[in-house]
Backbone:
């Protein structure tokens, strides 16, 4: 049974799209523990709108915070402090996808990071990387932080147009499993997600 935590090397690298693809590929349940920013939509609503299978269950967020900011700041704006014991994995017999917020070291509260949540859940991690100036550094830092915490990297997804020199270096340097690529699409629809999901199902041997 796959139980995966989806993180990115930063914000806006395609984490929610990859979460939708993996949810469709595995017909998994989906859970976003903390949503910071509720307009124009939420990540859970985006994923739900892109997934077509009848099996996936979408678990409600533990926290839905109004401010589109780092979760610790969004929580503080509402007089809240997020604590580790606030979070329990949903009880399901299905595959489960848990989507983080931003990058791995984004703070949920003082002394409590997204990485701590992944470690608390003891989930394998999927890392989403997108090419930009500095992305090699951000990718390697994310992978080193995961290893330092004893978290297994289930796979790395390169999102966007191919950049062979960058990707070859990251692959050779880290040795992490490389999942199927996701390209920059002019429009993301359920049909597009379904097409990518077929490739990910094959990667998982399903």
Residues:
């Amino acid at each position: 049974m796959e139980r995966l935590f989806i993180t990115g090397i930063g914000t806006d690298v395609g984490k929610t799209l990859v979460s939708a693809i993996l949810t469709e590929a595995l017909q998994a349940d989906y859970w976003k523990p903390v949503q910071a920013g509720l307009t124009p939509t939420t990540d859970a609503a985006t994923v739900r709108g892109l997934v077509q299978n009848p099996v996936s269950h979408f678990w409600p967020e533990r926290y839905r915070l109004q401010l589109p900011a780092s979760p610790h700041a969004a929580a503080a704006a509402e007089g809240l402090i997020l604590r580790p014991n606030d979070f329990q994995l949903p009880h399901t017999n299905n595959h489960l996808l848990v989507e983080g917020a931003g990058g791995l070291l984004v703070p949920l509260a003082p002394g409590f990071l997204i990485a701590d949540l992944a470690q608390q859940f003891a989930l394998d991690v999927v890392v989403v990387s997108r090419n930009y100036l500095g992305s090699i550094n951000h990718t390697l830092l994310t992978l080193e932080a995961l290893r330092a915490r004893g978290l297994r990297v289930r796979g790395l997804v390169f999102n966007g147009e191919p950049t062979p020199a960058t990707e070859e270096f990251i692959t050779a340097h880290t040795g992490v499993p490389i999942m199927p690529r996701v390209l920059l699409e002019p429009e993301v629809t359920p049909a597009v997600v379904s097409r990518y999901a077929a490739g990910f199902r094959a990667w998982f041997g399903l």
